[in-house]
Amino acid sequence: MAGIVRFDAITLFPQMFEAVLRHGVTRRAHERGLWELRTWSPRDFTHDAHRTVDDRPFGGGPGMVLMAEPLACAVEAARADEGGGNAPRVICLSTSGQPLSDARVRQLAEEGGAGRGLILVCGRYEGIDQRFIEALVDEEISIGDFVLSGGEIAAMGLIDAVVRQLPGALKQESVQDESFAQGQLDAPQYTRPEIWRERAVPPVLLSGDHARIEQWRRAQALERTRRVRPDLLQPAA
Ligand code: SAH
């Protein structure tokens, strides 16, 4: 039985998460009670007048580093709030993490549905004190080999990808046919009009012959994958 998936975001910018709460598939799934989100600001776990969450890096260098203690207190508060059941998984969004994959997204959706919550730690500035990561983080995840200004967009990418895998979020066939599900990219899609700026839709799609359409789509998907992502076709080492 799939239960409600709980996410806790540790973030200095909780309002950014309205992007997934307020729009589209993730919004509808939230309204249907498939997932929930709580946000925790490290600033609420500081004790000085300025509510300081960052400081200069030891050893020098530009920028600021998020201090371990406010982050740790925020994670511990989220954990305590989740109460009993499975200990939540603490994920830090990071350039140093394993790249997020469709397979990992599906595992996280399954675990989440089975009651293991996900605490998503969002870095900012130059990053996070390594001792916090060693002490409290189970797993670091990257959403790609580029640098974002903060972990929030990465965390929302993860939430969106996980939520669309939850039973009831999408029509089931949508997630089965999508890119990566079968180890390759999706076939190209077309909609009306049949001719747009002198470009016609591939005639097979208008044939009504479902077997031929299926075959054509499979061939297109394979060709596209070979061309742009041959790495997906290599068997895992
Ligand atoms: N100085 C760091 C970048 C810090 S960016 C470096 O060179 O690696 C600030 C925060 O954004 C990071 O702590 C991390 O939480 C988040 N972030 C940046 N890029 C990301 C990515 N590709 N995937 C996931 N999180 C990312």
SSE arrangement:
Blueprint: E1 5-10, H1 18-22, H2 24-31, E2 35-40, E3 54-55, E4 65-66, H3 68-82, E5 89-99, H4 102-113, E6 118-122, H5 130-136, E7 139-142, H6 151-163, H7 172-177, E8 195-196, E9 199-200, H8 210-228
Parallel strand pairs: 1-2, 1-6, 5-6, 5-7
Antiparallel strand pairs: 3-4, 8-9
Helix pairs in contact: 3-5, 4-6
Written account of the structure:
With 237 residues, the chain is an alpha/beta fold. It folds into two domains: 5-172, Alpha/beta knot (3-Layer(aba) Sandwich); 183-233, Trp Operon Repressor, Chain A (Orthogonal Bundle). The chain has helices at 18-22, 24-31, 68-82, 102-113, 130-136, 151-163, 172-177, 210-228; strands at residues 5-10, 35-40, 54-55, 65-66, 89-99, 118-122, 139-142, 195-196, 199-200. It has a five-stranded parallel β-sheet with strand order 2-1-6-5-7, with helices on both faces. A two-stranded antiparallel sheet has the order 3-4. The chain has a two-stranded antiparallel ribbon with strand order 8-9. Helix 3 runs parallel beside helix 5 (130-136) and helix 4 (102-113) crosses helix 6 (151-163). S-adenosyl-L-homocysteine binds next to strand 5 and helix 6.
Short recap of the structure:
The chain has 237 residues and is of the alpha/beta class. The protein has helices spanning 18-22, 24-31, 68-82, 102-113, 130-136, 151-163, 172-177, 210-228; strands spanning 5-10, 35-40, 54-55, 65-66, 89-99, 118-122, 139-142, 195-196, 199-200.
Q: Please give the count of helices.
A: 8
Describe the main β-sheet briefly: 5 strands, parallel
Pairing-aware structural class of the strands and helices? alpha/beta
What percentage of the residues does DSSP assign to strands (E)?
Answer: 15-25%
Average the pLDDT over all residues and give the rounded result.
Answer: 96
- CATH fold-level assignment of the largest domain: Alpha/beta knot
